Every structure is written in C-alpha cells, then in structure tokens.
C-alpha cells in the first residue's frame, strides 16, 4: 500500500515541489558562504541542497517512468548523510549555545525528513555496485574538500569542534555508503528469487 502512495504521480509531484523549494532555500542559506568560496569548490560546499537536488532529479525520472541509478546512488547516500549530519549539528549547537531558535528546529525536521525520504524510496532504486562506488567517491571527496580544504558549512559556535566533527562526518559517510550498498544488495537478492 505505501509503495502505491510513494509512486503515485500526485504524491511524486508534491514531493518534487516541496524538495525543489527546499533546495532553493538551501542554496539561498549558503549564499554568503558561496560568495566567498573559490569557484573550484562551489559544487561541494552546499551539501544539503545538492543532496535534495539529486533527489529532485530522482523524482523527475520517476515521473517519466525511468530510473537513473547514478543519481539514485548519489541521492540516497547524500540525503541520509546530510540529513543526519544537520540534525546532529543542530543538536550540538543546542547543547553548546542552549538554544537554536525556530530555524534550528525547522532545519532538524526538514533534514530528518531528507534522510527518511531517501530510505523510503529505496525499493524503487535500480543502483548497482558501480553506481554506489561513484557516489562513494563523490561523498568521500566532499569530506576532503570540507575538512582538508576548510570548505565545510559555517557553524561559528562549533568551530572549536571541527576535528571531532570531521571525524564524525567521515564515519557518517562510511555508514551512508554502507546503507546504499545494503539497499542495492537486498534488491539484487530479491530479484534473484
């Protein structure tokens, strides 16, 4: 039943509109940081909006009855990673500062939803190992850009914790890649039955 709802055209359009608006808002949120980012790093700085942009493409392909395994692998890996990452960073900000305001809570809900929707659509992905390897390279390369070249999202109150955040982010990337691999293997084993 839930699979029928998830792939219903009206529901897909609704999700596409919501995710498109969230993507635009996300890129606007990064505006000040992007304005001082060297051009070579621009694709790797706005992590969450790029993840939701990947998912917008996945939804658009679903609407025309097609799959795009490379984009699906990028979407599931980055949606889960940056969805969980943003929730944890906002919780850490709440712990450090004692408050995060309504925007912080809104970001926690929206990013938690990002992680969830990436997983909910897993039964419809057609990705294989090569697609996951591509997404893994993108994801780990992004960590290097963020934490070696210093292009991570700016959370000024968390600047004292950058080494720990970088370490956490690396292992969150590994977990996200492992989840994508598990989804792929589970689907492959079901198609062999």
UniProtKB/TrEMBL annotation:
<feature type="transmembrane region" description="Helical">
    <location>
        <begin position="132"/>
        <end position="152"/>
    </location>
</feature>
<feature type="transmembrane region" description="Helical">
    <location>
        <begin position="164"/>
        <end position="183"/>
    </location>
</feature>
<keyword id="KW-1133">Transmembrane helix</keyword>
<feature type="transmembrane region" description="Helical">
    <location>
        <begin position="102"/>
        <end position="120"/>
    </location>
</feature>
<dbReference type="InterPro" id="IPR009845">
    <property type="entry name" value="DUF1405"/>
</dbReference>
<feature type="transmembrane region" description="Helical">
    <location>
        <begin position="79"/>
        <end position="96"/>
    </location>
</feature>
<dbReference type="Pfam" id="PF07187">
    <property type="entry name" value="DUF1405"/>
</dbReference>
<feature type="transmembrane region" description="Helical">
    <location>
        <begin position="50"/>
        <end position="67"/>
    </location>
</feature>
<feature type="transmembrane region" description="Helical">
    <location>
        <begin position="12"/>
        <end position="30"/>
    </location>
</feature>
<keyword id="KW-0472">Membrane</keyword>
<protein>
    <submittedName>
        <fullName>Uncharacterized membrane protein YpjA</fullName>
    </submittedName>
</protein>
<keyword id="KW-0812">Transmembrane</keyword>
């Amino acid at each position: 039943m839930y699979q029928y709802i998830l792939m219903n055209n009206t529901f897909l359009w609704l999700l596409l509109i919501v995710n498109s608006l969230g993507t635009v808002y996300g890129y606007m949120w990064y505006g000040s940081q992007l304005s001082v980012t060297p051009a070579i790093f621009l694709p790797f700085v706005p992590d969450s909006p790029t993840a939701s942009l990947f998912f917008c493409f996945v939804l658009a392909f679903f609407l025309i009855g097609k799959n795009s395994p490379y984009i699906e692998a990028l979407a599931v890996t980055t949606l889960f990673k940056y969805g969980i990452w943003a929730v944890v960073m906002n919780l850490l900000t709440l712990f450090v500062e004692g408050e995060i305001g309504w925007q912080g809570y809104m970001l926690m809900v929206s990013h938690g939803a990002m992680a969830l929707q990436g997983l909910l659509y897993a039964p419809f992905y057609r990705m294989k190992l090569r697609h996951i390897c591509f997404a893994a390279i993108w994801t780990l390369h992004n960590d290097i850009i963020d934490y070696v070249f210093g292009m991570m999202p700016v959370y000024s109150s968390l600047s004292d914790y950058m080494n720990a955040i970088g370490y956490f982010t690396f292992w969150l990337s590994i977990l996200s890649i492992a989840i994508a691999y598990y989804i792929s293997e589970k689907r492959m084993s079901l198609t062999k039955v």
